[in-house]
Amino acid sequence: MEFRHIPVMYREVIEGLRIRPDGIYVDGTLGGAGHSEGILNRLGAQGRLIACDLDLSAIENAKVRLAEYEGKTTYLHDDYKNLIAHLDRLNIPSISGALFDLGVSSPQIDTPERGFSYMKDAPLDMRMDVTQRLTAYDVVNGYEGAELIRIFREYGEERLAPKIAAAIVRERAKAPIETTLQLAALIERAYPKGKQTGHPAKRVFQAIRIEVNGELEGLEAFIKAITLRLEKGGRIAVITFHSLEDRIVKNAFKELEKDCICDKRMPICTCGKRKEIEILTKKPIVASDEERQINKRSESAKLRIAERI
């Protein structure tokens, strides 16, 4: 698979990170390596990039695309949420900047056999890391109905979660649900005519993908931890593509920006809480009209940036 896609809000990300030539930077979601290439272009001889991705094909592609930067790039095949442990192992006490472009990447969606798309027929898979065991097939055919309802509601914000979950349970009792189009058609039949906004399977597929890859699990704690790993003046940029992710990132930043949280009636501070960052994007940055026309994936993207103080 050729792992290529257009990096979302490329200019805004690169400018927002305010890259220092001798800095150490993290790209926790390497993807097609477009953002990584932009960072590496601005690093000098002493600069370094730690590039991480769950998808081994993304890393293999990046090693070819970024071959000229081999001496200052370290690749990690892992979940970005494990980056703190990797930084410890690499004896990196602080970093100059970090980027996280969350969610599924275009090549994963555009490769039918990966099973992410409800528009192309493929086995139910949806794994970002194809070496892991849990697949979308396991979720759809193995989870109890009540658990499917919870996932569809929490991760997909799907109002018809009970009806769709019941339809899945009935269908799989006859025979396993094996393909993406089989599942998408089942979901579509569960929707009342004329009540659909966009494809009716979109929210359920998002929910299953999040569950398979554990995308939201531990996200807020990780964002806080990696932000505190920034050196003074270092910046973190996070791109999200749906409201669940964006809310988590927003709350993590707000918590880190808070100063004393003691009861205002107390004469002195006893909590010890201190402001750790300055949020540079009071409202998230969104893609320009021009970018949205060129890259449909950017339509739902939101970029938040914060600086360590």
Structural overview:
It is a single chain. The protein has 13 helices and seven strands. It has a seven-stranded mixed sheet with strand order 3-2-1-4-5-7-6, sandwiched between helices. Helix 7 (145-156) crosses helix 10 (202-213) and helix 11 (219-227) crosses helix 12. It is of the alpha/beta class and 309 residues long. It starts with 9 loop residues before the first helix and ends with a strand. The radius of gyration is 21 Å and the shape is globular. Helix 2 links the parallel strand 1 and strand 2 (48-53). The protein has helices at residues 10-17, 34-41, 56-65, 83-89, 106-110, 136-142, 145-156, 161-174, 180-190, 202-213, 219-227, 243-257, 289-294; strands at 24-27, 48-53, 73-77, 95-101, 230-240, 277-279, 302-308. Helices cover 40% and strands 14% of the residues. The longest helix is centred in the C-terminal third of the chain and has 15 residues, at 243-257.
Please provide a brief summary of the model:
The protein is α/β, with parallel strands linked by helices and 309 residues long. It has helices spanning 10-17, 34-41, 56-65, 83-89, 106-110, 136-142, 145-156, 161-174, 180-190, 202-213, 219-227, 243-257, 289-294; strands spanning 24-27, 48-53, 73-77, 95-101, 230-240, 277-279, 302-308.
